[in-house]
Amino acid sequence: MGMPKSFTVLDLLDLDLKDHNALQLVCISGRKGLTRSITQPDINRPGLALSGFFEDFNSRRIQLFGNGETSYLKLLSQKNYWDDIEKFFSQQVPCCIFSNAFHPEPKFLEITERHGCPVLVSELNSSDFTVRIIRALDDVFAPQRTIHGVFVEVSGMGVLIRGDSGVGKSEAALELIERGHRLVCDDAVDIRCVSGNTLLGKPVNPALGHHLEVRGIGIINVAQLFGVAAIQYQKEIEMVMELEIWDPQKEYERLGKHDKTTEILGVKLPSMEIPVKPGRNIAIIIETAVMNHRLKKMGIHSSQEFQENVIQWLESENARNVYLRKTKGEPAQ
Amino acid sequence: MVEKVVTVKNRAGIHARPAGMIVTLANKFESQIFIEKDNDKINAKSIMGLITLGVLCNTPIKISATGPDEQKAVDAIALLIDNRFEE
């Protein structure tokens, strides 16, 4: 668990984001500064700082130049006054980004080049760009952990199967895949906590993902064996199943009245302990547990309802007995 | 808990064959054994975990174990890595 190693401007350019997430960035100047690291998952509109007001200026953030800033730069260019810009770039900002595909003029680029500050240009407008980059940086800076387990999607719900090595996680996953569910990854799950309450799980290495190791067979490629429908790239973790070898001394949940939780990166997830022994089909148990959990989320709590029905039945039976005794003339208890 | 930091010295790093050797060795011990690189910590008894860790040549990794035979387990795995997986 911890912060990402070090996230540089080059890493920002390298982020593999697609479609509505793409930042559409190109570097037009200051390449030698591409190794500058970005330490804050936020952007700053330089505004006042360009006019020489540096109080409370967030120099460690990415500086985004939108319409307002570019208009001001044009004014400075007419006056040929660059002192404040010099001061601005002597503050070692990680990089500056121009939205609306605006290309600053040569004098500006000469200053940034001299200070080794990368200048990036995006085709997006400022508001779109802000939304996308905040989302991307949130993801990069999210608390991360690698967990041992198999991560599958069962009926649309992300289920993390944990347990000691050799307990049968991969075999359970294989059967779930056979039954039409999906594999996200086997053995090492890269977990990120986004916006403080959501856990996203994906393969540690996407290039090696979607392989499964099954004792006796070896490593199999799930995508090729079962088709692309059997795999999923990333998924929110919504439930944890702890597999363990059946311990006759231990008390396992019989009624299902108690909702247990497991904490990962500070997020509490519903969890279940599932004892494994020959003859217990783990895949079907997991499938049923997921369905039951979905029912609970829809407000139908099987175990509680059962309990209520039992109480209701006992009460009515009791009342009937009292009535029968009365009509037979026996003393009521 | 016993811990030891070793550096992987064989040229190709931990690819499928060395990972297989580590897993086979780790499974001979009762202890819980983990291998850590940077922020990633994986179970040494899991082959996919080890391969996806992506350990290159000259990377330091930390072996840790907890259990009845922890010292033996860490020593045995460290020795295997030091011997460059008999390559």
The total domain count of chain B is 1
Structural class of chain B comes to alpha+beta
Identify the CATH homologous superfamily of the largest domain in chain A: P-loop containing nucleotide triphosphate hydrolases
Secondary-structure content class of chain A: alpha/beta
Low-confidence stretches of chain A: none
CATH topology of the largest domain in chain A: Rossmann fold
- The proportion of residues in beta strands of chain B is 25-35%
Q: How would a textbook summarize the main sheet of chain B?
A: 4 strands, antiparallel
Architecture overview:
- The complex is a heterodimer of chains A (333) and B (87).
- Chain A contains nine helices and 16 strands.
- By secondary structure, chain A is an alpha/beta fold.
- With 87 residues, chain B is α+β, with helices and mostly antiparallel strands.
- In chain B, helix 1 (16-26) packs antiparallel against helix 3 (70-82).
- Chain B is globular and about 35 Å long.
- The termini of chain B are far apart.
- At the A-B interface, strand 6 and strand 12 of A face strand 3 and helix 2 of B.
